[in-house]
Amino acid sequence: MRLDIVRTKEEFAGLSKEWNELLEISASHVPFLRHEYLYTWWQTLGGGEWSHGELLIVTARHEDDSLAGIAPLFHTQNRDAKAAIMLLGSVEISDYLDLIARPDNLDNFVEALYNRLIQSDVPDWDLLDFYNILESSPTLQSMQTSAEKAGWEYAQENLHHCPFIPLPGEWDEYLAGINKKQRHEIRRKIRRAESDERSIRWYIVDDENSLDEEIEDFLQLMAQDQEKQAFLTGVMRTQMSAAVRAAFRENWLQLAFLEIDGNKAAGYLNFDFGNQIWVYNSGLDFEYASLSPGWVLLAYLLRWSNENERKTFDFLRGDEQYKYRFGAVDRSVVRVQVTR
């Protein structure tokens, strides 16, 4: 394999088609590794999470020039004030990150990557600091094996719980598989909402002409929560809006709202990608809390996901108890640090 380094935004932009084609057959196929997602992330350095960074994407190509692997990287000073090479998307707003390569190329790619990163044209670094890799990713073993072979130190730590729901494909079968008390509670809240004297409707945004307005409405719902309001700085709003538009253009956005008397009472920003639903964020108008609009909309989305044969409903990072009450099973993401 020939390994090259992509250092400019223009070069990055030009990789879009073959990047996404490789991702489709890679060992880790998640929405946060899509070219359009990471390209928008780079424009704001994660909504302002990083004050500076140097693009350092490493591509590997076969003899016929076809793409064999991508290490979506940048060079910066990490949270521990060390010179680090990190994954694009790190840390806060991208739940799952990884290298991009076919499973049968992964070992060779990682070993070649390590060798490429110690060459003289790469900025000095103290460690590779990779966040948010799923504990099931084969990249972890490849990174550890190659580190030991090079005489480098490999360290791995659990970071966050990432519960997800395997979906059976039938709404009634899904309900039958969760706790009886929770099953009763879901049905009770749906009945209460649907029997209320106020009109109830929910929908998934599908009109590009109204998308900007729908995005702003969603951000306003998010901002009703004080913690999320602090999170939504100007640059973070720009980042999230750009990511939503990019996902809509590429047909993997699921932005859904529950309306009560025509007013948005709850919203979910999800990704509908790879035959799975990825629950990215949510917002709630507390004025309608008595009708539990967030729970009701979540139930509607779970019913839709079963009826439309999605395989999993992934809540991403966070171990909030409601996720497990809806039938989620646990897994984790890890942080990997490799030092020379």
Total beta-strand segments: 16
Silhouette: elongated
Strand arrangement, largest sheet? Answer: 2-5-6-8-16-9
Q: How large is the share of residues in beta strands?
A: 25-35%
CATH C-level of the largest domain: Alpha Beta
Q: With helices defined by DSSP (H or I, 4 residues minimum), what is the helix count?
A: 12
Intertermini distance:
23 Å
Give Rg in angstroms: 21 Å
Indicate the percent of residues in helices: 25-40%
Mean pLDDT: 97
The CATH superfamily of the largest domain turns out to be Gcn5-related N-acetyltransferase (GNAT)
List the helices and strands and how they pair.
Blueprint: E1 2-6, H1 9-14, H2 16-24, H3 35-48, E2 54-55, E3 57-61, E4 67-71, E5 73-77, E6 83-87, E7 100-101, H4 106-116, E8 127-134, H5 139-150, E9 153-161, E10 164-166, H6 171-176, H7 180-195, E11 200-204, H8 211-222, H9 226-231, H10 234-249, E12 253-260, E13 263-273, E14 276-284, H11 293-307, E15 312-314, H12 321-325, E16 332-339
Parallel strand pairs: 6-8, 14-15
Antiparallel strand pairs: 1-3, 2-5, 3-4, 4-7, 5-6, 8-16, 9-16, 10-15, 11-12, 12-13, 13-14
Gist of the model:
This protein has 340 residues and is of the alpha+beta class.
Describe this structure in words.
It is built from twelve helices and 16 strands. The chain is an alpha+beta fold and 340 residues long. It folds into two domains: 2-160 and 335-339, Aminopeptidase (3-Layer(aba) Sandwich); 164-314, Aminopeptidase (3-Layer(aba) Sandwich), CATH 3.40.630. Strand 13 and strand 14 (276-284) form a beta hairpin. Helix 3 (35-48) runs antiparallel to helix 10 and helix 8 crosses helix 10. The chain starts with a strand and ends with a strand. The model has no long low-confidence stretch (mean pLDDT 97).
